[in-house]
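Renewal narrative, Specific Aim 1. Our central claim is that a sequence can be written position by position from structural information alone. The example that follows is taken directly from our test logs and has not been curated for this report. It begins with the structure tokens describing the chain, in the order in which they were read.
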């Protein structure tokens, strides 16, 4: 079974994170929500408290196939300032494991130098923060093991692409049909 870790820091965009969690679980992909805090409750950018399954230090990331970084502010900033997140994201990218980021979160990959020459997308207002990448302006972009998306309005398409990558087009279409997408 494929395993995905969704990293949540205070100020994360709720729709971007929870759409991924919901749709991947519908596809029977194991999803672990991980708190960057020292407690299991993380507050989204709109004040919605979400209880995670694990704290960052409790997770053995070697067991996972994909890491997902939701956007939102100041969630993206909080993820980027977490040394463990930067280490794990870099390790995943270098090992060829999937790294998925939506909205402002692709800027984290950019600051780590992981987007040089890659085709990517992000929240339009954040494009100036990404250097060395080919910005496509598309809703969702896959370039090798890097998957990026624009934001809240593309969250379902993003989650379906993650299912496609991990479980195949047929499973992604099945989930799309089941939610009347």
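The sequence written for that structure reads:
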């Amino acid at each position: 079974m494929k395993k995905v870790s969704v990293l949540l820091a205070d100020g994360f965009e709720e729709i971007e994170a929870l759409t991924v969690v919901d749709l991947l679980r519908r596809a029977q992909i194991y999803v672990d929500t991980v708190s960057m805090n020292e407690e299991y409750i993380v507050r989204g950018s709109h004040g919605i408290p979400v209880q995670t399954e694990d704290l960052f230090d409790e997770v053995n990331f070697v067991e996972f196939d994909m890491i997902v970084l939701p956007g939102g502010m100041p969630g993206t900033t909080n993820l980027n300032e977490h040394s463990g997140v930067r280490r794990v994201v870099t390790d995943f990218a270098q090992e060829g494991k999937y790294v998925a980021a939506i909205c402002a979160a692709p800027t984290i990959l950019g600051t780590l130098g992981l987007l040089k020459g890659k085709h990517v997308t992000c929240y339009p207002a954040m494009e100036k923060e990404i250097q060395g990448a080919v910005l496509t302006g598309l809703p969702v972009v896959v370039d090798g093991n890097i998957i990026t998306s624009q934001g809240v309005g593309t969250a379902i398409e993003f989650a379906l692409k993650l299912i496609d990558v991990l479980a195949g087009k047929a499973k992604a279409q099945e989930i799309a049909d089941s939610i009347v997408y």
